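Class, study these two lines:
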Amino acid sequence: MSDSGAQPVRQHVALTSSGNAALFGIAVLIVSYAVNAMDRALFPLILPEVAREYRFALPEAGLMSTVFTVGMAVSGMPAGYLMSRFAPKSVAQAGLLIFSAATIVTVYASGFSDMLAFRALTGVGEAMQLTALLAIVSGHFAQFRGAAVGALNCSFGAGAILGPLLGAALLTASGSWRVPMIGFGLIGFALMALVALAARDVARAPAALGPKRAVTAGGEQHLLNRNTVLLVLLSCLAGLAIFGFLGMYPTYLRRQLHFSAGDAGGIMSIYGLGVLVSVGGGWLGDRFEMRLVLGLSFLVAALIGFLLFNGPADFAVQAALAFAFGVIFSGAIYVNLAACHVKALQQALSGRASGVFVTSFYAAASVAGYAIGWLAATFGWAVAGDLQLCASCLVAVLLVLALKPERMARPA
């Protein structure tokens, strides 16, 4: 008796099973990105202790807080190239390994130079991981790229919530800034092992996901085009603003407003709550015209940036503003800029597009901490916030208006 009817059923079951395994693997990869956020939120929190022990000046402390972005800037595009030779999952795993190892060896630094190198090396690892993850989620969910990138950013938000709370607890209990750094590095190694076990089917995911996997049409054929150039400039402005906040805002809270480490950590965790709306922010970018979404987001971000350093200094107001900053900047601007970089190019160039975004965003971020630290030391915190957070966002609004949505890729 012929089993021709059973064969398609078996193929369908195998396809569905492989697709479910691939989706689970992608979910694990997304969760692994939380460890990066934990470290990024932790280091600015413990920076006063680090600066006191090593006698760093304010600009040096700001540079130390954001120097990892140098590693990300120089590694973003090479990571995109690596994905043309190796599986994106393997690139992400290698990045997590480098990141976790560099986090641990930071505690053994003898001075400014070697600590700076170790913190930059964490950025190399994160660039490899982030570039690979952006390409994975954008490629497998092309019809909902903004929402998919938003899900990835939600993982970052979860880490940004847990990092300051767990880090402050470990810092208070141990009395040493080294304990939370070692602990977070070990968490990274554990997640790397989990990725190796759970994400085996990710390489087969495009076929496994079947006809529901969207294919795109349109987009530019070359990296040098109007939209990509504008998006690079926008990414630079965004990186300058958001890492001015992330790199030195906890120091502003503790030194200028005299908040305790626990209160500063609580506010930064509340900022992380704002990041959790990233899926919604990405959905808005998928549904509405990108100039409207990005233009309004940058305009609101300029207002929040002004109020952070010029508004009331009590805990409730600063917490509310930090939450709003997370919603607008990390939940809307970051997500939609990343998605627009991929949309600007043809689908075959998605890995290169992710690399361009990572490089441009973190190239500006690499000087953000030093810049706002120098501005604060020279002119005061209010002027520093007005220039680096508020003014940069207003310039971005003008650049957004010059984008050409009709030249972007779209679901076919």
Notes: The two ends are 41 Å apart (CA to CA). The longest strand covers residues 216-217.
